[in-house]
Amino acid sequence: MALKTSLCEILGIEVPILQGGMAWVATGELAAAVSEAGGLGIIGSGNAPAAVLEVEIKKAKQLTKKPFGVNIMLLSPFVDEVVDLLCREEVRVVTTGAGNPGKYVDRFKAVGTKVIPVVSSVALAKRLERLGVDAMIAEGMEAGGHIGDLTTMVLVPQIVDAVSVPVIAAGGIADGRGAAAAFCLGAQGIQLGTRFICADECTVHDNYKKQVIKAKDRDTAVTGRSTGHPVRVLYNKLAREYERFEKEGATPEQLEQFGAGKLAAAVREGDVVNGSVMAGQSAAMVRKEEPAAAIIADIIEGTKQVISKLKEKFC
Ligand code: TUI
């Protein structure tokens, strides 16, 4: 049986798998590879100015004719120019993170762009449904990068109960077992970030991929709680120093300055000691580098196997 959900029709994709729009990590190449494989690839805009993002969008458009998305990081100083660009380029799907995208929803709807915000609370989910978003991503704190407070296991069913648009589960999903669990919780789709870091088509430095593959169960840490923007990373020298600085009472401004440029250092230069290696708790379940299409095939196959075993056992 095909793994198709309502989300596939809404987005024009073959399988209900989204690739997280990770800042610096999710380039046009990765997004295009995931879309070509039947999922929804998503370019991460992070803190990039519109001109930088435009290059990635053009790259993806050359590499695939299938739909792909762009993630807007709402804390970015360039949000307004990024929104202008995405409307101009008529990007088919926009996901948002790290804030409330309410004031941009109407502009995207006017150009036919599907809007899918990340929500980390029921209250925000209800507010955004009223504004007419097309689906929502319920992302638990197992995820990498900037996170909310709740786990995927408790957040997804609560969002599913609170809204009538399709819900996509994210955070801690790395294989068919996690995917099947998300569908059991009522999700119509899943989003994976960390596993796609190790896709062949992902252009991050090799050291970054190796660090993800090496990670064990307790190797991530959450830094930056005092700034109001907690971030999950693979624990390293930078995380240790950041923690110490935070404990010593550094202000959010000082911490922001300390963290500036550190993700780029890890992604581009492969500095996994003094750079910020953002990754989710599922890093421990990522074992190898492989093509994006193989990741998608493995998840689909794994999901079907888990569900058919459950049926044999319980039905
Ligand atoms: O956005 C992400 N993950 C990210 S963004 C990022 S770049 C960054 N670097 C340093 C500091 C902060 C960001 C790296 N990883 N995931 C989606 C996500 N959105 N997680 C949590 C949220 C969220 C949080 C609060 C969504 C909405 C929200 O609403 C607050 C409100 O205004 O109600």
Write the layout of secondary structure elements.
Layout: H1 6-11, E1 17-19, H2 28-36, E2 42-44, H3 50-63, E3 69-73, H4 79-88, E4 93-97, H5 105-110, E5 114-119, H6 122-130, E6 136-139, E7 145-146, H7 152-162, E8 167-170, H8 176-184, E9 189-192, H9 194-197, H10 206-214, E10 220-223, E11 231-234, H11 237-247, H12 252-259, H13 262-269, H14 292-314
Parallel strand pairs: 1-9, 2-3, 3-4, 4-5, 5-6, 6-8, 8-9
Antiparallel strand pairs: 7-11, 10-11
Notes on the protein architecture:
With 315 residues, the protein is an alpha/beta fold. It folds into 2 domains: 8-203 and 283-314, Aldolase class I (TIM Barrel, Alpha-Beta Barrel), CATH 3.20.20.70; 206-282, no CATH class. Helix content is 43%, strand content 14%. The chain has 14 helices and 11 strands. The chain has helices spanning 6-11, 28-36, 50-63, 79-88, 105-110, 122-130, 152-162, 176-184, 194-197, 206-214, 237-247, 252-259, 262-269, 292-314; strands at residues 17-19, 42-44, 69-73, 93-97, 114-119, 136-139, 145-146, 167-170, 189-192, 220-223, 231-234. Helix 8 (176-184) crosses helix 14 (292-314). It is globular.
